[in-house]
Write a structure and sequence with these properties.
mainly alpha, 4 helices, rod-shaped, transposase activity, IS150/IS1296_orfA-like, Transposase and inactivated derivatives, Transposase_8, DNA binding
Length: about 110
């Protein structure tokens, strides 16, 4: 987590791929890669290698701030929404019945 006033750095997938390639194909050490690329810590490279091994190229992309499912709702919220729709439909039906009987029903 970034400290107050600290700049949050992000690296392109190509940059990360280069570091991973240096580790996996050239068999270089984490610290030497970090030093050559100007990274503050070798843990960046370690994290990128792990992500690449687990998820491939997709693991090197930055997913911060991007929700994979924008409409995540709990089952309770879904059932409440369904109930709300049902009640609205019932109200509309009852309003129409009252209007047919001659009642003055306000429309909202």
């Amino acid at each position: 987590m970034a400290k107050k006033g600290q700049e949050i750095r992000s690296f392109s997938p190509e940059y990360k791929r280069r570091a991973v390639r240096m580790y996996l194909e050239e068999h270089r050490g984490l610290k030497s890669i970090a030093k050559e690329l100007g990274l503050p810590s070798h843990t960046y490279v370690k994290r990128w290698v792990k992500a690449f091994q687990e998820k491939g190229e997709e693991g090197l992309k930055d997913h911060r701030g991007k929700s994979s499912n924008k409409k995540r709702r709990s089952p309770q919220a879904k059932s409440m929404e369904e109930e709300n729709l049902q009640l609205r439909a019932e109200n509309e039906y009852l309003k129409k019945l009252l209007q047919q009987e001659g009642w003055d029903v306000p429309n909202r």
